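Honest question from a wet-lab person: if I give you the sequences of every part of a complex, can you actually get the arrangement of the whole thing, not just the pieces? Trying it with mine:
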Amino acid sequence: MTAHAITADTVAATVARLRERRPRVHCITNSAAVNFTANVLLSAGCFPSMTVNPEEVPDFVAGADALLVNLGTLDPLRQDAIGAAIEVTAETGRPWVLDPVFVERSRMRLALAKRLAMAEPAAIRLNRAELAALMGGEENDDPENIRPDHVAPGSDESAAAYALATLSTVVRTGDVDFITDGVRSLNIEGGHPTMALVTAMGCAGTALLAGFLAVEPDAVVASAVCLAFVAAAAEQAGMRSYGPGTFSPAFIDALYWLRPEEIGASARIS
Amino acid sequence: MTAHAITADTVAATVARLRERRPRVHCITNSAAVNFTANVLLSAGCFPSMTVNPEEVPDFVAGADALLVNLGTLDPLRQDAIGAAIEVTAETGRPWVLDPVFVERSRMRLALAKRLAMAEPAAIRLNRAELAALMGGEENDDPENIRPDHVAPGSDESAAAYALATLSTVVRTGDVDFITDGVRSLNIEGGHPTMALVTAMGCAGTALLAGFLAVEPDAVVASAVCLAFVAAAAEQAGMRSYGPGTFSPAFIDALYWLRPEEIGASARIS
Amino acid sequence: MTAHAITADTVAATVARLRERRPRVHCITNSAAVNFTANVLLSAGCFPSMTVNPEEVPDFVAGADALLVNLGTLDPLRQDAIGAAIEVTAETGRPWVLDPVFVERSRMRLALAKRLAMAEPAAIRLNRAELAALMGGEENDDPENIRPDHVAPGSDESAAAYALATLSTVVRTGDVDFITDGVRSLNIEGGHPTMALVTAMGCAGTALLAGFLAVEPDAVVASAVCLAFVAAAAEQAGMRSYGPGTFSPAFIDALYWLRPEEIGASARIS
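Yes, you can. This is the full assembly:
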């Protein structure tokens, strides 16, 4: 994908569409992220719901425009909820996003994440270590391993291979964010170093990506616009805060106040 | 109820009584609300406890002055906890408040909320959509429907009918808040539009209502004072913040700093 | 322990070591504390993980440098998680800290806390009421009671007796904090009154103590440095905030910005 493929105008128009349509996003997310995620969604222009009760999740997901599945604090209730939720999206055709938090730290979580990645998420958001774990990690003798031998774990090439294998768009966040559907690839620059010191920043960003997928069917475009929006808000928050504690409220403020054109103008997509 | 029935002095005296007695409020609430609710209660002058473990809830409720039952993120554990908690309040005679969050979005939750509304909550706090759902919604062919045919769903009249049917005080929040016990009715104006962009604002306000019920047995008065207090704090927060992110800390600050007479003077009860 | 035993230099060096090593702290904590605790750990210089799923906890604890066990919102899942977690620390020899929140309010929780206190926590952090409850409370006819008859419940003497009985370091927080391993005893002064109005301040502080135990094996020193750090950050937050709502972000900012020498210089350990 060439740099001019996603213009400032596209970014601005997509953010404006999100705020106009105010999509409902149902979130199955971890206990550290639930409040912050709901506030991020509300400020950015979405309506959140957060129940993880498997009995209720089908009704909530049926009424939602998109779904977030975040694997943090993955208890048996959440595991059941995820299964019930994905069944509904398979019926309704609504997009869902997978955030395989800390899969490199728990074997059970890794096994579940590998299965979920094959259940047609519109996008998978992760960092380098999580991608490496999902693709078999350092040792490539795992029979389920889908990383080609010559590809470095967690690399751009492996992300593209994983996108093709899962028929999903892979969004690998880090100092520079990388988006690929296996054919088209993009880098997003920007943001602020304090993001790494605030819990659930990535989790909340992935919830917002679910919101963007509800208004933009091309997951590469939705992901790029979402990350550009988050980066712009983080840059504002960095200027209006004194440390990681005041960064969070300032970030939520910026998600609300930033105008679409400002977000478009500040986007660094290449 | 006429406007002069709840005076600025009554508001001020009731807030002062809350801060002096510092009631213990046990909260069974949703995962997005738990931290914010605890901080709202502490700042306003109450002592919160938040466990949802059915084994422990009876001990906590027995030692509390009031109980909040909020139906958000309603998992099986919370369902058991609610049953155990209400049994204790039935024995101790301590007031409890029902907050039937999102009952219009989940059939299971709606069925439970209908039963709980009949278990003698001192007050039920909800919005127009939740009230309409509880009373049978748009279609009035539900055999359990208790809304008279000629009454619009969610309206003032239906709120009064629901208060009589449940022997409770109905507190319907929105642009203008409406309180009724079926005989007396009040409107509360004020607050700030940013409240709608902060998750759990309503949930935390209902927890505070439980606190007020511990110090004021007339649920219409307790509700009016609580909403006037919340509105005053929200107005202060609106002036001292830059968006939804900085609104929350400013709101909690204001709950702590506002003097009873200021709250009384700013109350718009009619 | 005499006042000069823990110098400003020791405090500064220990804080510097925490930030350099960035220990991983796995937290089994309550739902009101989870987000705030994660942010406190990140700002202070640790890497938090927060799952309470018993299936995953062993993998997380095996990869962590220290463990927090907090008994708030103690549901069956957390009870299982605690058992699984402590088994792993017994194997790995990594330190863990017990925070028996509200044990005086729930018989079930008290029984569990008494057992856990005997499972070799490096430190037990509690307040006066919790200590009194753990040692048998006012009535000393409990056969399990380990408080000598002549010792007042919750007192310095009883804390020392409890430290000897549990082979742990007891950290009793309050207006003045008191640390004892039964032989050496210390007082820590400082902090800010607003701390009592912010939920989970104590819980987050205990999580940070787990982090310090990962870099300082002497639990008396680790506790003193941790409390001095928290007190210094709270004093900064008191100056940079307008009430309990803005205190929390300012506290997290200060945990990040305070230089080791500043913390050492402001420590009041005697």
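Two things worth pointing out. The interface with chain A takes residues 30-36, 72-76, 102, 105-109, 196-200, 241-246, 248-249 of chain B (CB under 8 Å). The mean pLDDT of chain B is 94.
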